[in-house]
Design a protein that fits this description.
mainly alpha; two-stranded antiparallel ribbon; 62% helix; 2% strand; elongated
């Protein structure tokens, strides 16, 4: 009888023949998706229900916030555009955050939702948090970078996108 030395470094398998590292890789974007979805949904709802935020002027209003950051923003013209209708701009940002949050949590049009989240984060970085010094004190840049993996990969698991993709595959007769 011969004895051989085991040379593979893979650990026991679970999840349909995959080891734990394969499963961890498959689910790696899920915590990020949940965090960003909940955060943006909450941010949008918070803005929509805040009595002070959706006003042209006053403490905590979108109008006063935009006027305060105008001269320190990277693109003052963008702030000027928002100041033409601060309440409309604030409402659009809040509704955009709600839509991005819901789309991300449900995994529906995830890449589009992530792109929307990235664009909201980019606009807020270039206006509101641009003057943060050092730059890492402003969180909008970090959110912009956090959206990037979801823009690239979408939501391949536990999502309506995956369900719809599987249904299309079954209808076309492609049973991989």
């Amino acid at each position: 009888m011969t004895h051989s030395m085991r040379t593979d470094t893979r650990t026991p398998r679970f999840d349909g023949g995959r080891d734990w590292r394969d499963s961890a890789t498959r689910y790696a974007l899920l915590p990020l998706r949940l965090f960003l979805g909940v955060t943006f949904l909450y941010a949008g709802l918070d803005k929509l229900t805040d009595g002070a935020f959706l006003k042209d002027a006053g403490a905590g209003s979108i109008g006063d916030t935009m006027r305060a950051v105008r001269d320190s923003s990277a693109i003052p013209a963008l702030v000027d555009l928002a100041l033409k209708s601060p309440v409309g701009f604030g409402t659009a940002i809040a509704l955009g955050e709600v839509a991005v949050g819901i789309g991300t949590l449900l995994g529906l049009f995830t890449r589009l939702a992530a792109l929307g989240g990235a664009l909201i984060s980019l606009s807020l970085w270039l206006t509101v948090s641009w003057a943060s010094d050092p730059y890492y004190y402003g969180n909008d840049l970090a959110y912009l970078m956090a959206w990037t993996p979801l823009v690239l990969a979408g939501a391949p698991l536990l999502s309506l996108d995956a369900t719809l993709r599987e249904r299309r595959r079954q209808r076309s007769g492609d049973y991989r």
